[in-house]
Amino acid sequence: MCSLTKTLTYLRYSNRVLGLSPRLYSSNTPQYETLAVSVPKKYVYHVELNRPKNFNTFTPTMWKELVTCFSALSDNPECRVVILSGQGKHFTGGIDLNGFVESASKAHELSDVARKARFLYKMIGQYQDGITALENCVKPVLAVVHSACVGAGVDLITAADVRYCTEEAWFQVKEVDVGLAADVGTLQRLPKVIGSTSIARELCFTARKLPAKEALEIGLVSKVFPDRDSAIQQVLEVAQSIASKSPVAVQVTKQSLIYSQSRPTPEGLEHIRVMNQTMLQSDDLTKSAISQATKTEAEFDDL
Ligand SMILES: CC/C=C\C=C\CC(=O)SCCNC(=O)CCNC(=O)[C@H](O)C(C)(C)COP(=O)(O)OP(=O)(O)OC[C@H]1O[C@@H](n2cnc3c(N)ncnc32)[C@H](O)[C@@H]1OP(=O)(O)O
After folding, report:
1. Which atom of ligand 1 is nearest to the CA of 97?
2. Least CB-packed of 37, 59, 150, 301 within 10 Å?
């Protein structure tokens, strides 16, 4: 082996062992089996569902990796905003039906109803955690959907902060068609996201395909782009704009929105009051004020 090949082999090996990838904007990009993480711009992380040959369907590994990945990004001071998209033909075809049948059939190996129930209760909880990981991540998550977003995909994107899609994208709350009541978030989040229980219930009961145009009309997505590349490019600009602002202000804003979405207003007000009795003392406040007054860009410390 020539010395250059040896060096490259060593670098690839040490990066893999250390969980690092040689990226320009960060020294901190762990890789996963079902998710690809990159850092396209400073402070902007891109998470891609990475099972393109299987339409990015959700496997037991993917549910677990969503938790690990979004929890790591939440804790990563170099990350200020996350873009979530899918590789390949579709954003996602939902849960991997073969894997799901296999996992669920493990319950049937148990002889007693209480033990079967406990097994399934745990499994559903683990899957719910994979979706809720997006909400628990204090950095804003911007989802970009192209082509199909089926079943678990809708659960996933309704836990994101902002949603965008391409013109040929479509959404389907498919669960009733496969004999399930959706149980990892759509029933709880979709009505709040679109602000219409009537439309949400119609979509959940009928499992009809919702095209991009209608998704925009009902407020499921903020904007529709011609194709995936232009969508990612434009959303990258939104992400950079968010990343340029005080991470204290942005992250506490997300925490307050999430906390308040399922609580009465007085509780939300108390929560932000307690948060801001500390956060208003941050240097970010002064830096932002100076930047606004002088029309200059502020540099904020990592958070
Ligand atoms: C505790 C429970 C937690 C979560 C539960 C979540 C529930 C769900 O996610 S419900 C939704 C489940 N998904 C589906 O029902 C997928 C339905 N499939 C489709 O809509 C389409 O196949 C497609 C994903 C949009 C892809 O369309 P297209 O590009 O036209 O390819 P096809 O020819 O339809 O499919 C090719 C091949 O892929 C198989 N396949 C598609 N999706 C899945 C899947 N989710 N799991 C397993 N296999 C899937 C499809 O059956 C075809 O297989 P062949 O053997 O080639 O026929």
Report:
1. 46
2. 301
